[in-house]
Amino acid sequence: MFGLGNLRDAETSQRRALEIQNEVLPKPHPDLALSLNNLANILQVQGRLDQAQPYYRDTLAMQRILLHANHPDLATTLNNYGLLLDRMGLWAESEAAHSNALTIRTNLHPGDHLHVAFSLNNLASLRASQGDFARAMELHRQTLEMRRRLLGDSAPAVADSIGNLGRIFRQQGRFDDAEAWQNDALTRRRLLEPVGEHPAIATSMAELGLLRRAQGKPAEAAQFLREAFDLRTNALRSDDSTLAESAENLALVLCDLGDFVGAEKLARQSLPIREQNYPDDWRRYHAQALVGRALLGRKEYTEAEASLLAGCNGMKEREARIPVPDKPRLPEALQHLVQLYEATSRPDEAARLRNELT
Predict the structure, then answer these.
(1) In angstroms, what CA-CA distances link 223 with 59, 203, 300?
(2) What is d(CA 258, CA 286) in angstroms, rounded to the nearest whole number?
(3) Within its chain, how far is the Cα of 343 from the centroid?
(4) pTM
(5) 54, 85, 114, 267: which is deepest, by most CB within 10 A?
(6) How many Cβ atoms are within 10 Å of 297's Cβ, its own excluded?
(7) Per-residue pLDDT of the chain (358 residues; tens, 9 = 90+)
(8) CB 104 within 8 A of CB 72
(9) HEC letters along the chain
């Protein structure tokens, strides 16, 4: 069921299996560790990160008793746990998990190996979340070189690494380099997926859209982001978090263009996905603030204020867990709240919030 995308039924079945195993198996036991890990994976895919975390911890505790220190299953669990912690904004813990996984995999495979490349890639993404773009770039380059040696120059994973490097260039403000690398990734992905319907193509289109927005070209950005959103709508489940992200990115640029009706529709599509998948995450509150931004543009001031306040307050409470490249989302939302106070003739509140932003 998990492989078919039926996550709720998979969760129910896995919880029942775990319940039975807890009754009949001694602890620790390999089958029990496997079930704990499976349930953690199911919860993580659904975005229920806080619920997944203790199951990963229990899995690791059991595997450390059952397995030798360099067992590949232990590296896999550490890798998955590191991804979860990165998504939760717990970067020191994530780095420890990923570094441990990389050490195990390097010990198992002293030369080039795809598992080693995968760990390098995850550490690179973690470094980018922390704002260490130089180290992220170095790790992504190591990943790219290793994947080329192992897979050849035309493999999908090579295109992924090229796109990852393009993203780091964009996050650094090196827009010419970012465009060159993303266009290379897009060309490769289109050759690999000539029908043009693969989610990886949407990743390149989304990155090029974000690049155009950063360059101050909202009309071009909207074209790229619309195509990415349409591709993901066709390829992904309606509750997929990547689809929510795509809806939000397109909504932001539609606000730039003054299409507040279209932006509100997209933001309202994203919000329930965020509420379901990440109920206590800053992304949920960013979506809520984005609804308020669109309502502000429509001059629906009362409802806009409620959404902006809820979104801004939620993001402020979780500010420490916002990745460095996404940090500007909070001051942008607060600035929209300033605009609302100015539009509704509340200069004192606008001045107070403006001082907070400076």
Answers:
(1) 45, 14, 27
(2) 19
(3) 34
(4) 0.90
(5) 267
(6) 19
(7) 444 456 788 899 999 998 899 889 888 898 899 899 999 999 888 778 888 999 999 999 999 999 999 999 999 999 999 999 998 999 999 999 999 999 999 999 999 999 999 999 999 999 999 999 999 999 999 999 999 999 999 999 999 999 999 999 999 999 999 999 999 999 999 888 655 557 789 999 999 999 999 999 999 999 999 999 999 999 888 988 899 999 999 999 999 999 999 999 999 999 999 998 888 899 999 999 999 999 999 999 999 999 999 999 999 999 999 999 999 999 999 999 999 999 999 999 999 999 988 8
(8) yes
(9) CCCCCCHHHHHHHHHHHHHHHHHHCCCCCHHHHHHHHHHHHHHHHCCCHHHHHHHHHHHHHHHHHHCCCCCHHHHHHHHHHHHHHHHCCCHHHHHHHHHHHHHHHHHHCCCCCHHHHHHHHHHHHHHHHHCCHHHHHHHHHHHHHHHHHHHCCCCHHHHHHHHHHHHHHHHCCCHHHHHHHHHHHHHHHHHHCCCCCCHHHHHHHHHHHHHHHHCCCHHHHHHHHHHHHHHHHHHCCCCCHHHHHHHHHHHHHHHHHCCHHHHHHHHHHHHHHHHHHCCCCHHHHHHHHHHHHHHHHCCCHHHHHHHHHHHHHHHHHCHHHCCHHHCCHHHHHHHHHHHHHHHCCCHHHHHHHHHHHC
Give the whole-angstrom CA distance, residue 77 versus residue 311: 34
Both tokens assigned to 140: 């992504």
Residues 256/290, Cβ–Cβ less than 8 Å: no
Other CB atoms within 10 A of residue 238 CB: 10
Instruction: Give me the torsion for CA of 14, 15, 16, 18, rounded to 10°.
Output: 90
